[in-house]
Design brief:
With about 375 residues, this protein is an alpha/beta fold. The chain has 13 helices and four strands. The longest helix is centred in the middle third of the chain and has 39 residues.
Length: about 375
């Protein structure tokens, strides 16, 4: 028998119209047998149609779905349909077909009827809704902090130390490496431009100023957002899926105070420290270029760097780092509490936590740049 051989015989017996099937019915010969059968049963002129599967040697899910749809169409016209002599394998295939699922509309229509203006409106509403949710969560977080300050013994100090280690100590290698590489790159690119006018001596000042003023805080914050912000969202999101947060509420614990406050406090503590760490290694990276390519001594490089660095710049850098840390932790926790269903939601809101945190870091940095310019 050929691999895709099939034979269909039509017989009328008393008040029934028999469709006797033989051979293989699969995706490969779907169009052929589908048209052949539909042509004959379009008007069976019998109150009953019987599909006989006694000689069927192979049946795949597409063929089974086709016969199921034929049965459904005929039943809608008042014709009684029977499927007889099904093998155990065929019965198993038909058992996974659910008529209710087939009748449901798709979650998103194939044809996107929304216009460009509508899409912009929907996106704007989504952004506004996310911002409102963040403001609401920030209010709840501030209330939880005030309650903790009122009764410090309720603060879970072990959790704070745990997240200090996770967000801070465990992040030292990658922060140091990235800081050193960024400092090295800035120094090298500055050297290529400044050497044309004989201003190599200003490379240390440029590297230290760029790192301490801008790149150090924002680079560290983005790394922490990717490492710790996503971890916070995934951790709380998993607890939401497992109904552990509901259990905390049932026992009388405030989930924001119990879960979010230690994370936010630990992050605010470690990010400024990580920023100083990144600045230090960035200056070291720039020094490597200064000593090897600019013919500068270590003492000269450090002296030129210290001439540029002012206390105001260091203080504002640490203030920015603290605010960035609070934003990262708050957004991560908020997105975790928004998880409702399964692993898919955990992944969705974890990604959203990182993206939103980076966006808010950039917005906050822009505000600080303008504000500190006028303060200075």
């Amino acid at each position: 028998m050929d691999q895709e051989f099939h034979r269909i015989t039509f017989q009328r017996k008393e008040n029934s119209f028999y469709v006797i099937l033989a051979g293989r019915f699969s995706r490969k010969n779907f169009n052929i047998f589908n048209e052949e059968i539909k042509k004959e049963i379009s008007s069976p002129q019998a109150p009953s149609v019987i599909f006989d599967f006694s000689e069927v040697t192979y049946l795949d899910s597409i063929a089974a779905l086709t016969f199921f749809q034929m049965q459904k169409d005929l039943a809608g016209r008042g014709v009684n349909v029977q499927l007889i002599h099904l093998s155990d394998e065929a019965k198993g295939i038909f058992s996974v077909i659910h008529s209710d699922a087939l009748e449901q509309r798709p979650l998103k229509s194939l044809a996107d009827d929304e216009g460009f203006i509508q899409k912009i409106g929907q996106a704007s509403l989504t952004v506004a809704r996310d911002f409102a949710d963040f403001i609401s969560f920030t209010g709840a977080l501030l209330v939880a902090f005030l309650q903790t300050l009122k009764n410090p013994k309720t603060l879970r100090k072990q959790d704070v130390l745990f997240y200090v280690q996770r967000a801070g100590v465990d992040g030292l290698p990658i922060v140091g490496l990235i800081g050193a590489l960024v400092g090295l790159i800035i120094a090298f690119m500055s050297f290529l431009q400044l050497k044309m006018i004989g201003a190599n001596i200003y490379v240390p000042a440029l590297v230290s100023f760029a790192l301490i003023k801008e790149l150090g805080p924002i680079m560290t914050a983005i790394l922490v957002a990717g490492r710790s912000g996503s971890a916070y969202a995934a951790e709380i999101g998993t607890m939401m899926v497992n109904e552990e947060v509901d259990a905390l509420q049932t026992m009388g614990f405030d989930p924001v105070r119990f879960l979010a406050v230690p994370k936010v406090l630990a992050t605010v503590i470690v990010v400024p420290i990580l920023t100083i760490y990144a600045d230090f290694f960035g200056v070291i990276g720039g020094m490597i270029i200064g000593v090897t390519s600019l013919d500068l001594t270590v003492q000269t490089y450090i002296t030129q760097s210290l001439k540029t660095i002012k206390l105001f710049d260091v203080v504002t850098s640490l203030i920015k780092a603290g605010v960035f840390a609070a934003l990262i932790a708050a957004i991560g926790c908020q997105k975790g509490f928004e998880v409702r269903e399964g692993a898919q939601d955990v992944g969705k809101f974890t990604t959203s936590a990182v993206v939103n945190a980076i966006f808010m870091i950039v917005v906050a940095d822009s505000i600080f740049a303008i504000m500190f310019y006028y303060i200075k």
